[in-house]
User: Fold this.
Amino acid sequence: MHNKILIVEDDIAISEMVKNYLIKDGFLVKTAFDGEEAILKYLNYDFDLIILDLMMPKLDGIETMKIIREKSSVPILIMSAKDSDVDKAIGLGLGADDYIAKPFSMIEFSARIKAAIRRSTKYSNNEKKEDPMVMKVGNLTIDVGNFLVSKNNQAIALTSKEFDILKLFIQNPNRVFTKVQIYSFIWKDEYFGDENVINVHIRRLREKIEEDPSNPQYIKTLWGIGYKLEVI
Assistant:
């Protein structure tokens, strides 16, 4: 079965280059050249992954991603010439699964696409097979089987990666995880050395589960080492 990909990129030359490479790599590919066209195609087709540029006419990549994330957890890979930590943080914080800056190697780009689809597929299959299991720590409750998290009995909306990170910590209380280990367990892929990916997900998770994210009660930072879920 061929995976279906939507490329959202207003630069026709880049769009065609990526499209032709991915078609040769065995993917089914559709393209959109602005955010509005991307939303229309997303609503009419079932995609396995979306490649999204940030700077686009009519509706930029951030707004496009917000709309898609309200309806779906489809993997989104940001492809942009903007490579600052702020841009990465915004994109990843809003639900992107990965970020690659232009110019890039098509070999690495294709590898990241395949890894994102593989993780998404494996996650979906595991969720179907996994027995319902409820874990609690402090005022948090995580229902693994139903992909639900609540704080003081109020539901919390987490992205799939935030959920996986929280589950990893709760299943291993007081164990210290390095950033390399977290990437390996959650992304199940080779660590590319971009610490910002993990930092953003940890920060966003803290903002949702902690009473005071700047002074976290649950996810503690061990400077120069990594993170752990502290349970006393």
Observations:
- Residues 130-229 form a domain with the Arc Repressor Mutant, subunit A fold (CATH 1.10.10.10).
- Confidence is low (pLDDT under 50) at residues 127-132.
